[in-house]
Design a protein that fits this description.
The complex is a heterodimer of chains A (284) and B (179).
Chain A: H1 2-30, E1 32-39, E2 50-55, E3 61-65, E4 71-77, E5 80-87, E6 94-100, E7 105-107, E8 110-111, H2 131-134, H3 138-175, H4 182-207, H5 220-250, H6 262-281
Parallel strand pairs in A: 1-7, 1-8
Antiparallel strand pairs in A: 1-4, 2-3, 2-5, 5-6
Chain B: H1 2-12, H2 15-19, E1 23-38, E2 41-47, E3 51-57, E4 60-68, H3 77-86, E5 94-102, E6 110-119, E7 122-136, E8 139-146, E9 159-160, E10 163-164, E11 171-178
Classes of the chains: A alpha/beta (284), B mainly beta (179).
Chain lengths: 284, 179
Protein backbone atom coordinates (compact mmCIF):
# COMPACT_ATOMS: atom_id res chain seq x y z
CA UNK A 1 0.00 0.00 0.00
CA UNK A 2 2.73 2.42 0.99
CA UNK A 3 4.71 2.05 -2.28
CA UNK A 4 1.46 2.70 -4.24
CA UNK A 5 0.82 5.81 -2.18
CA UNK A 6 4.37 6.99 -2.79
CA UNK A 7 3.94 6.43 -6.51
CA UNK A 8 0.67 8.39 -6.46
CA UNK A 9 2.37 11.31 -4.72
CA UNK A 10 5.28 11.10 -7.14
CA UNK A 11 2.89 11.08 -10.10
CA UNK A 12 0.88 13.99 -8.70
CA UNK A 13 4.09 15.84 -7.96
CA UNK A 14 5.33 15.42 -11.53
CA UNK A 15 1.95 16.55 -12.87
CA UNK A 16 1.94 19.65 -10.63
CA UNK A 17 5.55 20.38 -11.61
CA UNK A 18 4.72 20.32 -15.30
CA UNK A 19 1.55 22.37 -14.75
CA UNK A 20 3.56 24.99 -12.86
CA UNK A 21 6.21 24.97 -15.55
CA UNK A 22 3.55 25.36 -18.21
CA UNK A 23 2.00 28.47 -16.62
CA UNK A 24 4.95 30.81 -17.24
CA UNK A 25 5.30 29.36 -20.74
CA UNK A 26 1.64 30.11 -21.42
CA UNK A 27 2.10 33.61 -20.04
CA UNK A 28 5.15 34.19 -22.24
CA UNK A 29 3.23 33.21 -25.33
CA UNK A 30 0.13 35.35 -24.75
CA UNK A 31 1.65 38.58 -23.44
CA UNK A 32 2.78 41.22 -25.93
CA UNK A 33 5.34 43.99 -25.59
CA UNK A 34 5.15 47.38 -27.26
CA UNK A 35 8.22 49.58 -27.48
CA UNK A 36 9.75 52.27 -29.65
CA UNK A 37 11.26 55.72 -29.82
CA UNK A 38 9.50 59.05 -29.75
CA UNK A 39 11.02 61.71 -31.97
CA UNK A 40 10.23 65.31 -32.92
CA UNK A 41 9.89 66.82 -36.42
CA UNK A 42 13.68 67.03 -36.78
CA UNK A 43 14.12 63.37 -35.83
CA UNK A 44 15.58 64.20 -32.41
CA UNK A 45 14.49 62.03 -29.45
CA UNK A 46 11.70 63.45 -27.27
CA UNK A 47 12.15 62.58 -23.58
CA UNK A 48 9.29 62.51 -21.07
CA UNK A 49 6.60 62.10 -23.72
CA UNK A 50 3.41 60.80 -22.10
CA UNK A 51 2.01 57.63 -23.64
CA UNK A 52 -1.44 56.36 -22.90
CA UNK A 53 -2.14 52.89 -24.27
CA UNK A 54 -5.82 51.97 -24.32
CA UNK A 55 -7.09 48.49 -25.07
CA UNK A 56 -9.92 49.16 -27.53
CA UNK A 57 -11.90 46.05 -26.50
CA UNK A 58 -11.66 46.38 -22.70
CA UNK A 59 -10.94 50.09 -22.29
CA UNK A 60 -8.04 49.25 -19.95
CA UNK A 61 -5.48 52.06 -19.81
CA UNK A 62 -1.72 51.69 -19.41
CA UNK A 63 0.42 54.81 -19.02
CA UNK A 64 4.13 55.29 -19.44
CA UNK A 65 6.75 57.90 -20.37
CA UNK A 66 9.64 57.95 -22.81
CA UNK A 67 13.06 58.01 -21.18
CA UNK A 68 15.90 60.48 -21.81
CA UNK A 69 16.66 58.76 -25.14
CA UNK A 70 13.01 59.00 -26.20
CA UNK A 71 12.58 55.25 -25.73
CA UNK A 72 9.43 53.77 -24.24
CA UNK A 73 8.65 50.18 -23.35
CA UNK A 74 5.30 48.72 -22.31
CA UNK A 75 5.48 45.08 -21.27
CA UNK A 76 2.63 42.80 -20.20
CA UNK A 77 0.00 43.86 -22.72
CA UNK A 78 -2.68 41.38 -23.62
CA UNK A 79 -3.01 40.78 -27.38
CA UNK A 80 -5.55 42.95 -29.17
CA UNK A 81 -6.15 46.32 -30.72
CA UNK A 82 -4.79 49.38 -28.91
CA UNK A 83 -5.16 53.12 -29.27
CA UNK A 84 -1.89 54.82 -28.38
CA UNK A 85 -2.15 58.51 -27.44
CA UNK A 86 1.04 60.50 -27.28
CA UNK A 87 1.62 63.95 -25.86
CA UNK A 88 4.66 66.04 -25.02
CA UNK A 89 5.25 69.68 -24.22
CA UNK A 90 5.77 71.77 -27.34
CA UNK A 91 4.36 69.18 -29.73
CA UNK A 92 0.97 68.39 -31.21
CA UNK A 93 -0.80 65.41 -29.66
CA UNK A 94 -0.84 62.24 -31.70
CA UNK A 95 -3.01 59.11 -31.63
CA UNK A 96 -2.26 55.92 -33.53
CA UNK A 97 -3.82 52.46 -33.54
CA UNK A 98 -1.82 49.28 -33.27
CA UNK A 99 -2.77 45.60 -33.21
CA UNK A 100 -0.68 43.35 -30.99
CA UNK A 101 -0.52 39.64 -31.66
CA UNK A 102 0.00 37.05 -28.92
CA UNK A 103 3.66 36.94 -27.91
CA UNK A 104 4.54 39.90 -30.17
CA UNK A 105 7.42 42.22 -29.32
CA UNK A 106 6.31 45.08 -31.51
CA UNK A 107 8.40 48.15 -32.18
CA UNK A 108 6.47 51.31 -33.02
CA UNK A 109 8.47 54.50 -33.44
CA UNK A 110 6.42 57.67 -33.32
CA UNK A 111 7.21 61.11 -34.69
CA UNK A 112 5.61 64.12 -33.03
CA UNK A 113 4.89 67.26 -34.99
CA UNK A 114 5.15 70.87 -34.05
CA UNK A 115 1.80 72.32 -33.06
CA UNK A 116 0.22 74.18 -35.90
CA UNK A 117 1.04 77.88 -35.68
CA UNK A 118 -2.28 78.69 -37.22
CA UNK A 119 -5.14 77.38 -35.09
CA UNK A 120 -7.43 77.59 -38.11
CA UNK A 121 -5.24 75.26 -40.21
CA UNK A 122 -7.35 72.87 -42.28
CA UNK A 123 -7.84 69.32 -41.09
CA UNK A 124 -8.63 66.12 -42.96
CA UNK A 125 -12.27 66.46 -41.92
CA UNK A 126 -12.49 69.73 -43.89
CA UNK A 127 -11.79 67.99 -47.20
CA UNK A 128 -15.06 66.08 -47.44
CA UNK A 129 -13.78 62.55 -47.80
CA UNK A 130 -16.26 59.84 -46.86
CA UNK A 131 -15.42 57.59 -43.86
CA UNK A 132 -14.99 54.71 -46.34
CA UNK A 133 -12.21 56.64 -48.04
CA UNK A 134 -10.42 57.92 -44.97
CA UNK A 135 -10.84 55.13 -42.40
CA UNK A 136 -8.25 52.37 -42.40
CA UNK A 137 -8.88 48.71 -41.75
CA UNK A 138 -6.32 46.36 -40.23
CA UNK A 139 -8.45 43.45 -41.46
CA UNK A 140 -8.33 44.62 -45.08
CA UNK A 141 -4.59 45.16 -44.77
CA UNK A 142 -4.15 41.62 -43.43
CA UNK A 143 -6.12 40.30 -46.42
CA UNK A 144 -3.93 42.27 -48.83
CA UNK A 145 -0.78 41.04 -47.06
CA UNK A 146 -1.94 37.43 -47.38
CA UNK A 147 -2.84 37.97 -51.03
CA UNK A 148 0.60 39.43 -51.78
CA UNK A 149 2.40 36.61 -49.96
CA UNK A 150 0.47 34.01 -51.96
CA UNK A 151 1.01 35.78 -55.28
CA UNK A 152 4.75 36.13 -54.56
CA UNK A 153 4.90 32.37 -54.00
CA UNK A 154 2.87 31.93 -57.20
CA UNK A 155 5.41 34.06 -59.06
CA UNK A 156 8.47 32.23 -57.68
CA UNK A 157 7.02 28.76 -58.18
CA UNK A 158 5.92 29.78 -61.66
CA UNK A 159 9.48 30.65 -62.58
CA UNK A 160 10.78 27.41 -61.05
CA UNK A 161 8.18 25.45 -63.03
CA UNK A 162 9.61 26.85 -66.25
CA UNK A 163 12.73 24.65 -65.88
CA UNK A 164 11.03 21.20 -65.82
CA UNK A 165 8.48 22.41 -68.39
CA UNK A 166 11.24 23.34 -70.84
CA UNK A 167 13.13 20.17 -70.00
CA UNK A 168 10.01 18.06 -70.70
CA UNK A 169 9.55 19.77 -74.10
CA UNK A 170 13.21 19.19 -75.01
CA UNK A 171 13.15 15.59 -73.76
CA UNK A 172 10.06 15.01 -75.90
CA UNK A 173 12.44 14.59 -78.87
CA UNK A 174 13.91 11.47 -77.26
CA UNK A 175 10.47 10.10 -76.42
CA UNK A 176 8.91 10.33 -79.87
CA UNK A 177 9.81 9.31 -83.36
CA UNK A 178 11.58 6.27 -84.75
CA UNK A 179 14.66 6.67 -82.57
CA UNK A 180 12.71 6.85 -79.31
CA UNK A 181 13.68 4.53 -76.49
CA UNK A 182 11.76 3.26 -73.46
CA UNK A 183 14.16 5.08 -71.11
CA UNK A 184 13.71 8.29 -73.14
CA UNK A 185 9.94 8.00 -72.78
CA UNK A 186 10.23 7.30 -69.05
CA UNK A 187 12.50 10.28 -68.49
CA UNK A 188 10.16 12.53 -70.51
CA UNK A 189 7.17 11.24 -68.52
CA UNK A 190 8.97 11.72 -65.18
CA UNK A 191 10.08 15.29 -65.95
CA UNK A 192 6.63 16.07 -67.37
CA UNK A 193 5.08 14.76 -64.16
CA UNK A 194 7.30 17.04 -62.07
CA UNK A 195 6.36 20.01 -64.30
CA UNK A 196 2.64 19.22 -63.95
CA UNK A 197 2.91 18.85 -60.16
CA UNK A 198 4.74 22.16 -59.82
CA UNK A 199 2.33 23.81 -62.26
CA UNK A 200 -0.77 22.90 -60.26
CA UNK A 201 0.89 23.92 -57.00
CA UNK A 202 1.76 27.27 -58.63
CA UNK A 203 -1.78 27.70 -59.93
CA UNK A 204 -3.32 26.94 -56.53
CA UNK A 205 -1.50 29.91 -54.96
CA UNK A 206 -3.13 32.27 -57.48
CA UNK A 207 -6.55 30.59 -57.38
CA UNK A 208 -6.80 30.59 -53.59
CA UNK A 209 -5.23 34.03 -52.98
CA UNK A 210 -7.84 36.25 -51.26
CA UNK A 211 -9.85 38.35 -53.68
CA UNK A 212 -10.32 42.07 -53.13
CA UNK A 213 -13.99 43.01 -53.59
CA UNK A 214 -14.77 45.78 -56.05
CA UNK A 215 -11.57 45.40 -58.07
CA UNK A 216 -11.95 45.67 -61.81
CA UNK A 217 -9.27 43.69 -63.61
CA UNK A 218 -7.38 45.92 -66.05
CA UNK A 219 -4.00 46.07 -67.72
CA UNK A 220 -1.54 43.28 -68.58
CA UNK A 221 -2.89 41.09 -65.78
CA UNK A 222 -5.96 40.54 -68.00
CA UNK A 223 -3.79 38.87 -70.66
CA UNK A 224 -2.00 36.88 -67.93
CA UNK A 225 -5.35 35.57 -66.66
CA UNK A 226 -6.74 34.95 -70.17
CA UNK A 227 -3.69 32.84 -71.07
CA UNK A 228 -4.39 30.67 -68.02
CA UNK A 229 -7.51 29.47 -69.87
CA UNK A 230 -5.17 28.01 -72.50
CA UNK A 231 -2.26 26.64 -70.46
CA UNK A 232 -4.52 25.44 -67.62
CA UNK A 233 -6.60 22.99 -69.68
CA UNK A 234 -3.41 22.26 -71.66
CA UNK A 235 -1.65 21.12 -68.51
CA UNK A 236 -4.53 18.74 -67.83
CA UNK A 237 -4.84 17.46 -71.38
CA UNK A 238 -1.14 17.06 -72.23
CA UNK A 239 -0.30 14.48 -69.51
CA UNK A 240 -3.47 12.48 -70.33
CA UNK A 241 -2.58 12.37 -74.03
CA UNK A 242 1.03 11.64 -73.04
CA UNK A 243 -0.05 8.66 -70.95
CA UNK A 244 -2.07 7.30 -73.91
CA UNK A 245 0.91 7.78 -76.26
CA UNK A 246 3.23 6.15 -73.71
CA UNK A 247 0.96 3.07 -73.53
CA UNK A 248 0.70 2.82 -77.30
CA UNK A 249 4.48 3.06 -77.79
CA UNK A 250 5.13 0.50 -75.05
CA UNK A 251 2.78 -1.90 -76.84
CA UNK A 252 4.91 -1.41 -79.95
CA UNK A 253 2.17 0.53 -81.73
CA UNK A 254 2.53 3.74 -83.61
CA UNK A 255 1.01 6.64 -81.69
CA UNK A 256 -2.47 7.17 -83.04
CA UNK A 257 -5.85 8.70 -82.32
CA UNK A 258 -6.12 11.45 -79.73
CA UNK A 259 -2.67 10.57 -78.37
CA UNK A 260 -1.10 11.89 -81.57
CA UNK A 261 -2.03 15.41 -80.39
CA UNK A 262 0.14 15.11 -77.24
CA UNK A 263 3.11 16.98 -78.73
CA UNK A 264 0.94 19.73 -80.20
CA UNK A 265 -0.96 20.15 -76.92
CA UNK A 266 2.36 20.33 -75.04
CA UNK A 267 3.73 22.95 -77.43
CA UNK A 268 0.61 25.15 -77.21
CA UNK A 269 0.64 24.82 -73.42
CA UNK A 270 4.33 25.73 -73.25
CA UNK A 271 3.91 28.78 -75.50
CA UNK A 272 0.85 30.02 -73.56
CA UNK A 273 2.71 29.52 -70.29
CA UNK A 274 5.74 31.47 -71.56
CA UNK A 275 3.52 34.30 -72.81
CA UNK A 276 1.75 34.40 -69.44
CA UNK A 277 5.10 35.00 -67.72
CA UNK A 278 6.13 37.62 -70.28
CA UNK A 279 2.79 39.42 -70.04
CA UNK A 280 3.50 40.48 -66.45
CA UNK A 281 7.27 40.82 -66.79
CA UNK A 282 7.89 42.90 -69.90
CA UNK A 283 6.05 46.02 -70.91
CA UNK A 284 4.74 45.50 -74.42
CA UNK B 1 -9.03 110.68 -55.02
CA UNK B 2 -8.18 108.34 -52.18
CA UNK B 3 -11.07 106.11 -53.12
CA UNK B 4 -9.89 105.99 -56.76
CA UNK B 5 -6.41 105.09 -55.61
CA UNK B 6 -7.82 102.31 -53.48
CA UNK B 7 -9.80 100.89 -56.41
CA UNK B 8 -6.77 101.12 -58.70
CA UNK B 9 -4.66 99.40 -56.05
CA UNK B 10 -7.17 96.55 -55.75
CA UNK B 11 -7.11 95.95 -59.52
CA UNK B 12 -3.35 96.12 -59.76
CA UNK B 13 -2.56 94.02 -56.71
CA UNK B 14 -1.01 90.71 -57.75
CA UNK B 15 -2.54 87.59 -56.32
CA UNK B 16 0.36 86.87 -53.95
CA UNK B 17 -0.53 90.02 -52.06
CA UNK B 18 -4.10 88.80 -51.81
CA UNK B 19 -2.70 85.72 -50.07
CA UNK B 20 -1.77 87.97 -47.20
CA UNK B 21 -5.37 88.74 -46.41
CA UNK B 22 -7.60 86.25 -44.58
CA UNK B 23 -8.46 83.98 -47.46
CA UNK B 24 -9.22 80.38 -48.22
CA UNK B 25 -7.93 78.34 -51.12
CA UNK B 26 -9.57 75.26 -52.55
CA UNK B 27 -7.87 72.68 -54.72
CA UNK B 28 -9.84 72.74 -57.94
CA UNK B 29 -7.96 70.28 -60.17
CA UNK B 30 -5.00 68.04 -59.58
CA UNK B 31 -2.82 65.35 -61.06
CA UNK B 32 -0.52 63.55 -58.67
CA UNK B 33 1.86 61.03 -60.25
CA UNK B 34 4.31 58.69 -58.55
CA UNK B 35 7.09 57.14 -60.60
CA UNK B 36 8.64 53.74 -59.89
CA UNK B 37 11.72 52.43 -61.68
CA UNK B 38 12.44 48.75 -62.24
CA UNK B 39 14.92 47.27 -64.74
CA UNK B 40 11.95 45.78 -66.64
CA UNK B 41 9.37 48.52 -66.11
CA UNK B 42 8.96 52.24 -65.71
CA UNK B 43 5.70 52.74 -63.84
CA UNK B 44 3.64 55.87 -63.37
CA UNK B 45 0.69 55.79 -61.01
CA UNK B 46 -1.70 58.69 -61.50
CA UNK B 47 -4.42 60.09 -59.26
CA UNK B 48 -6.83 62.93 -59.94
CA UNK B 49 -8.63 62.45 -56.60
CA UNK B 50 -6.63 64.83 -54.40
CA UNK B 51 -8.53 67.33 -52.32
CA UNK B 52 -7.00 70.31 -50.63
CA UNK B 53 -7.66 73.42 -48.66
CA UNK B 54 -5.56 76.41 -47.72
CA UNK B 55 -6.26 78.91 -44.98
CA UNK B 56 -4.42 82.22 -44.78
CA UNK B 57 -4.62 84.23 -41.60
CA UNK B 58 -2.46 87.04 -40.30
CA UNK B 59 0.10 86.68 -43.07
CA UNK B 60 0.53 82.92 -42.64
CA UNK B 61 -0.96 80.21 -44.82
CA UNK B 62 -1.59 76.57 -43.93
CA UNK B 63 -2.32 74.09 -46.69
CA UNK B 64 -3.53 70.52 -46.45
CA UNK B 65 -3.71 68.19 -49.42
CA UNK B 66 -4.95 64.59 -49.17
CA UNK B 67 -5.07 61.81 -51.74
CA UNK B 68 -6.62 58.35 -51.21
CA UNK B 69 -3.92 55.70 -51.75
CA UNK B 70 -6.50 53.59 -53.60
CA UNK B 71 -7.04 56.30 -56.20
CA UNK B 72 -3.68 55.83 -57.95
CA UNK B 73 -3.95 54.06 -61.29
CA UNK B 74 -0.84 52.58 -62.89
CA UNK B 75 -2.76 50.89 -65.71
CA UNK B 76 -2.70 47.44 -64.09
CA UNK B 77 -5.11 46.45 -61.32
CA UNK B 78 -2.81 43.76 -59.95
CA UNK B 79 0.09 46.19 -59.65
CA UNK B 80 -2.17 48.80 -58.00
CA UNK B 81 -3.34 46.29 -55.39
CA UNK B 82 0.28 45.35 -54.75
CA UNK B 83 1.15 49.03 -54.37
CA UNK B 84 -1.66 49.45 -51.83
CA UNK B 85 -0.36 46.41 -49.95
CA UNK B 86 3.29 47.48 -49.74
CA UNK B 87 2.25 51.03 -48.85
CA UNK B 88 -0.04 49.69 -46.09
CA UNK B 89 -2.81 51.57 -47.88
CA UNK B 90 -5.70 49.54 -46.47
CA UNK B 91 -4.63 50.45 -42.93
CA UNK B 92 -3.52 54.00 -43.76
CA UNK B 93 -5.75 54.93 -46.71
CA UNK B 94 -4.75 58.57 -47.14
CA UNK B 95 -1.60 60.37 -48.19
CA UNK B 96 -1.61 63.81 -46.60
CA UNK B 97 0.69 66.73 -47.29
CA UNK B 98 0.83 69.71 -44.96
CA UNK B 99 2.69 72.87 -45.60
CA UNK B 100 2.97 76.20 -43.88
CA UNK B 101 3.96 79.26 -45.87
CA UNK B 102 4.35 82.91 -45.20
CA UNK B 103 1.77 84.79 -47.25
CA UNK B 104 4.41 86.49 -49.38
CA UNK B 105 6.01 83.17 -50.38
CA UNK B 106 4.29 83.37 -53.72
CA UNK B 107 5.97 86.67 -54.61
CA UNK B 108 8.58 84.71 -56.59
CA UNK B 109 7.84 82.46 -59.59
CA UNK B 110 9.20 79.55 -57.54
CA UNK B 111 7.81 78.70 -54.12
CA UNK B 112 10.12 76.83 -51.75
CA UNK B 113 8.07 74.92 -49.19
CA UNK B 114 8.80 72.60 -46.29
CA UNK B 115 6.44 69.65 -46.60
CA UNK B 116 5.19 67.24 -44.00
CA UNK B 117 3.99 64.08 -45.75
CA UNK B 118 2.09 61.30 -44.01
CA UNK B 119 2.03 58.08 -45.97
CA UNK B 120 1.97 54.40 -45.06
CA UNK B 121 1.63 55.30 -41.38
CA UNK B 122 4.89 57.24 -41.39
CA UNK B 123 5.64 60.95 -41.48
CA UNK B 124 8.46 62.37 -43.57
CA UNK B 125 9.66 65.93 -43.95
CA UNK B 126 10.95 67.44 -47.16
CA UNK B 127 12.79 70.71 -46.90
CA UNK B 128 12.61 73.51 -49.43
CA UNK B 129 10.82 71.65 -52.20
CA UNK B 130 10.57 73.89 -55.26
CA UNK B 131 7.19 74.51 -56.92
CA UNK B 132 6.70 76.62 -60.02
CA UNK B 133 3.51 78.64 -60.01
CA UNK B 134 1.56 80.68 -62.51
CA UNK B 135 -1.23 83.05 -61.57
CA UNK B 136 -4.35 83.33 -63.72
CA UNK B 137 -7.02 85.53 -62.21
CA UNK B 138 -8.03 84.00 -58.91
CA UNK B 139 -6.32 80.71 -59.77
CA UNK B 140 -2.83 79.48 -59.01
CA UNK B 141 -1.38 76.71 -61.15
CA UNK B 142 1.37 74.90 -59.25
CA UNK B 143 3.76 72.22 -60.47
CA UNK B 144 6.66 70.49 -58.76
CA UNK B 145 8.21 67.21 -57.76
CA UNK B 146 8.57 65.84 -54.25
CA UNK B 147 11.81 63.84 -54.02
CA UNK B 148 10.31 60.99 -51.99
CA UNK B 149 11.92 57.60 -51.42
CA UNK B 150 10.49 54.30 -50.19
CA UNK B 151 12.88 54.43 -47.23
CA UNK B 152 11.33 57.75 -46.11
CA UNK B 153 8.17 55.80 -45.31
CA UNK B 154 9.79 52.53 -44.24
CA UNK B 155 8.40 50.70 -47.27
CA UNK B 156 10.27 47.64 -48.48
CA UNK B 157 10.92 47.96 -52.22
CA UNK B 158 8.52 45.68 -54.08
CA UNK B 159 10.15 43.24 -56.48
CA UNK B 160 9.34 41.65 -59.79
CA UNK B 161 11.14 38.44 -60.81
CA UNK B 162 13.18 38.80 -57.60
CA UNK B 163 14.53 42.19 -58.73
CA UNK B 164 13.56 45.07 -56.39
CA UNK B 165 12.46 48.48 -57.60
CA UNK B 166 14.61 51.56 -57.04
CA UNK B 167 14.27 53.37 -53.73
CA UNK B 168 13.39 56.69 -55.37
CA UNK B 169 9.69 57.36 -56.00
CA UNK B 170 9.51 60.99 -57.17
CA UNK B 171 6.00 62.36 -56.86
CA UNK B 172 5.01 64.94 -59.44
CA UNK B 173 2.20 67.30 -58.58
CA UNK B 174 0.23 69.49 -60.92
CA UNK B 175 -2.46 71.48 -59.15
CA UNK B 176 -4.83 74.32 -59.74
CA UNK B 177 -5.95 76.21 -56.67
CA UNK B 178 -8.85 78.62 -56.58
CA UNK B 179 -9.54 81.32 -54.12
Amino acid sequence: MKPNLARSFLGTGILVFFLLMACPLWAQVTIAVLSGTVTGPSGAAVPNAELSIKNVATGQLTKTQSNSAGVYNVPDLTPGEYEVSLSADGFANKTVNVTLAAGARQTMDMALQSPSINPGAPSLGDLGFTPDQSKGSAQDQARLDKRSRMLKTHQRLGLITTAPLLAAIILGNGAAGKKSTASGRELHAAVGGVAAGLYFTTASFAIFAPKVPGTTVRGPIRLHKALAWIHGPGMVLTPILGALAYEQRNRGEKVHGAASFHAAAGAVTGVAYGLAILSVSIKF
Amino acid sequence: MNRNLQIAFLFLTPSWLVLAADTQWVLEQSTVTYHVSHPLHQIDGVSHAARGKGVCQAGQCDFLIAVPVKSFDSGDSNRDLHMIQVARGAKFPMVTVRLHLPADAASQPTIHADLEVEFAGETAHFKQVAFEHVTKGNQEHITGTIPATLADFKIDPPSLLAIPTKNEIPIRVDMTWRQ
